[in-house]
Amino acid sequence: MTGSPKKHKTVGIDIRKDLFGANEDAAALNKKKFREHGLVVLDIMGSVGTGKTQLIEALCDRLRGRRQILMVAGDLATTIDADRVGSHEIDTVQINTGTACHLDARMIRVALDDVDLSKYDVVFIENVGNLICPAGYSLGADKKIVVVSVTEGPYMVRKHPLTIKRADMVVINKIDLADILEFDVDALVRDIREVDADLPVFRVSSKTGDGVDNLLKALGF
Amino acid sequence: MTGSPKKHKTVGIDIRKDLFGANEDAAALNKKKFREHGLVVLDIMGSVGTGKTQLIEALCDRLRGRRQILMVAGDLATTIDADRVGSHEIDTVQINTGTACHLDARMIRVALDDVDLSKYDVVFIENVGNLICPAGYSLGADKKIVVVSVTEGPYMVRKHPLTIKRADMVVINKIDLADILEFDVDALVRDIREVDADLPVFRVSSKTGDGVDNLLKALGF
Questions:
Q1: Potential cystine with B123: which of A51, A169, B41, B159 (Cβ 3.0-4.6 Å)?
Q2: Was domain B5-218 assigned CATH 3.40.50.300?
């Protein structure tokens, strides 16, 4: 521990590359496995309290009887989200990351190792609640869906351009609260368009159900 | 990059220890420097959109003419928060972290290297918007203040026990919205008490000013 700061920094950067490379390898293996089982796998990320779980619940309720669903819940310490989705008679797998601020592809591989994936059509992965770190780690999913909500203030897109760049679609959740909070949804959409003009954006209220059917359709369900 | 996953994992863990150790060393040096200048330094962390900047603005307005303030803003990519606080005639230093999800002690050291700290009484450090990662990195501040808000859903404390454990005080912000959002503030306080029975908790609306004077008093201003 006697190295100069510069040395620490260099070592850190090398290891980050190594970790990212290893993650990409694991993600590719996950993707191969998911394809073999014909699964649609969605990695749903966003800050704490943006309504990721409620969105998954809304999607599950609408897919009942049409698709067999597995939910994988990422959380530092609790099983709150898995319990909520599980109460809809959906199979769940919990990953508790301890202090890790995101899921990675190897966690997914280990968590699903003894799961019979042939039973399912769709896997919803709810990432750890965090708008930054999960963006950097591919899990092997088909799409990374970023959930933001009108309760997070007006700057969450402008402050997180990389998260938006790495998204395959964005859900703006809790639109039922936009008027009460005097939140300008159109301005937020413009912020998203500035980062990626072609990114699909969905205005949703997981609570009222508004926009959920549109999202389902876009997901091909 | 041909090592087995196990090898990667081991290397990663060693480096994390190294990084954390190096950070603690740098934080101790920062703390020494802050003490030499008689500064009160507050590390303010919380998820994006919890109102950290608005809280700092409210504190600055009430300390006008009584304390000389420096604000250090941590943000991935923008200067939005520093610009806001700067508009109150407060000196600011911006740290853009790129992809890093938290400030660390060395970033603070570098950012303040050419700043004449003898001009100031108080330093507000606004950490990168994230309820997880900044908790693990001491900056050398006197207190780590965790800001949560009633817009983040009911689980943000239960899901982040380590963040609460590492806090010196918690501000529950946006209490003016609690009724509209049907948010149970008392239940949240109970969640905090379960993690740390003695942690000071302040109910605040940075927008209306409710509770800000109480917080100032507790901070010794």
A1: B41
A2: yes
